[in-house]
Design a protein that fits this description.
The protein has 480 residues and is an alpha+beta fold. The chain is 31% helix and 22% strand. It contains 13 helices and 22 strands. Bound molecules: flavin-adenine dinucleotide. Flavin-adenine dinucleotide binds next to helix 1, strand 18 and helix 8.
Length: 480
Amino acid sequence: MYDITIIGAGITGTFIARELSKYDLKILLLDKENDVSNGTTKANSAIVHAGYDAVEGSLKAKFNVQGNKMYDEVCRDLDVPFKRIGSLVTAFNDEELDTIQCLYQRGLANGVPDMKILSKEEVLGIEKNLKDTVKGALYAKTGGIVGPWELAIALAENAVENGVELKLNSPVTDITKTSKGYRVVAGEKNYTTKLVINCAGVYADKIDQMVNEPTFEIIPNRGEYNLFDKSMGGLVNTVVFGCPSKMGKGTVILPTVHGNLLLGPTAADIDQREDTRTTFEGLSAINDHAKETLKEIGFQDVITSFSGIRAKVDTKDFIIGKAEGKVNFINVAGIDSPGLTAAPAIAEYVVDLIKESKETLGLAFGENKDFNPRRKPSIHFMDLKRSEQIKLIKKDEAFGRIICRCENITEGEIVDVINRKAGATTLDGVKRRARPGSGRCQGGFCGPRVMEIIARELDLDMKDVVKDGKGSYILTGETK
Ligand SMILES: Cc1cc2nc3c(=O)[nH]c(=O)nc-3n(C[C@H](O)[C@H](O)[C@H](O)COP(=O)(O)OP(=O)(O)OC[C@H]3O[C@@H](n4cnc5c(N)ncnc54)[C@H](O)[C@@H]3O)c2cc1C
């Protein structure tokens, strides 16, 4: 019997799993997909928000500000890219100047440090590529950018290294109450557990309703993006928000941690929870925003478009707590933006919530004496000194073979991410961890080579190597 079963290995589930791995508990982390972070966590703006946006007194405001402060340490420990580059909310007219004043006041109420209202000259001093019609901006020094899926993968890897059991390809289809807790049916297997934590993103209401009366409903809401080549990455230095409107936080123009430029997102309620298509209207709207905001931008340098789905609820706040009348079922639901930022603080809160009922649950919560907060550092061959590169190639000649010529990724790095705990098993899984296929050609050249390496390392037939989700086959059979 497991002590705790977490459903969903996105950023909230993986943060909670790692936090719980500090204790001597038997923990199970389940996900329906074939990789960690294949839900909303793999498609968002990747911003670590400062915290002036959420309504004061809300859980969003509380966990955003707390979570933001926790990012430096966790990203250092887990060797995940994170840059505190600061954020701007730009104002182009008098009404928007009033809005940024309101955001500033809200930020103060939420406890956001290091904010300032900037004059036109100050804004243009930071962002030279903004149109001269800008009238001012709210600057928040603590705003940052992170690799969201890299973080979730690193958290899962570290959690597994510290004793958590991760089971992928395990869709939870039923949960029933037992005398000691629950029986969870996932991927045609039965698991018994004392406590369930529901971190199932856009399906959190469905999981909750397997054992509880309906109290909330997830409204899927899609956000679309355009990602640009690294040649455009220097167009802005900070996270540049447009002024918020009823559409949400406002469209953003920002560099990514790897030096690309990202534009987006839109916000539209949709019917299907996994409808991640992009639309002409959506992408045109974000492009128009960029044209109105920047002096210069080249749309010929868009290398891919994508979308992510927010798990919205009508209360517009996170739903975090014990299900009604139960100490052994915890919902972590409605985690839309700023869920990525808030996740480390949510994890601490959830663990405290479980500790409150530890006697009733029969959980000792002894310390895991072997807990190691750090994971094995990842290898970035091109960032190494020449002498270190030579040493590595002497140890393993796979580091001497470049597979992805856009991003300069070696075979050694690809083999490493396949063979780690919570390692990659798909083409996009390798891409998310080591970045082959993230460059200008989007895997056109290196894709087949990466597939060969996956097949060889995991002893699979090439035909069985998928692009990303289940069934996303690339090859159907031999032609000659
Ligand atoms: C367009 C957009 C922009 C955003 N920008 C930001 C931002 O810049 N900063 C920020 O802080 N936040 C941002 N967010 C919010 C942030 O991305 C989310 O809050 C966060 O990723 C939610 O993580 P999660 O783990 O709760 O959900 P998910 O990542 O969706 O994880 C849920 C997991 O549950 C699994 N699952 C579902 N059903 C089952 C089942 N039946 N059995 C087993 N497993 C199941 C799924 O496969 C999935 O892996 C944005 C969101 C969107 C959509």
